[in-house]
Amino acid sequence: MIDDIQRIALETLDMNKQALIFLPSRASAEKTAEDIAKLTSLNNPDIEKNILGVVSSPTKQCRKLSLCVKKGIAFHHSGLVSSQREIVEDEFKKGNIKIICATPTLAAGVNLPAFRVIIKSLKRYNEKWGMDWIPVLEYLQMAGRAGRPDYEKSGEAIVIAKDEREKEEIYERYICGDPEEIYSKLAVEPVLRTYLLALISSGLINNHESMMEFFSKTFWAYQFKDMNQLEKIMDKMLKLLKDWQFVTIRWR
After folding, report:
1. Which residues, in sequence order, are bridge partners of residue 20?
2. What is the C-alpha to C-alpha distance for residues 191 and 131, in angstroms, rounded to an integer?
3. Per-residue pLDDT tens digits for 8-25
4. Where in the chain is the domain with CATH 3.40.50.300?
């Protein structure tokens, strides 16, 4: 008997569309991909060879992925080597891979032709609280992978609820709820010092003027608003780097 995710995945294939399925762990991403692959009749032997050819001695995980991509299904997580992730993404863009089962890391900054996004759970283990709801912003990141303007005119995001009560809570929390406030991490001094040093080292900042020009255009500056105080903070960070002998100042 197939479960809800498998049913929706097969329905997506029948529509000749593509889908991203977000799962909470690497193991569940791999298992879901394997289960769906067993239900498809697709055949992509060339992609199978490409996946196996990435490493000189294919691991159990490599062989597992190769069998999935042969059937037009893939899993995607940080445990794969980068070239394997690239193959999966490229073949998905070409339409040869129809469904990717992924951890939430794929939700950030990747533009893929997915008509549907399927999210198995909006809860994640928290060391302090146990299973807890993920932020609204993270849900929006995942849901936003569906129907990208470059590929689709519309898209669907489907969340799997365990029961009617959870369905109502998901609706109130994520569909009707507001996203959390975001704050620039440049407001944290050690982070700011690190970025300043990196920018000086790369040559992007080589005098006081270029330093202020760069940081005045950041999200931190937009939130901070007081440019005079921001300049004082930057001068303080610069002095610390000089005192610790990370930089030598030859300007003002």
Report:
1. 100, 117
2. 30
3. 999 999 999 999 999 999
4. 4-175
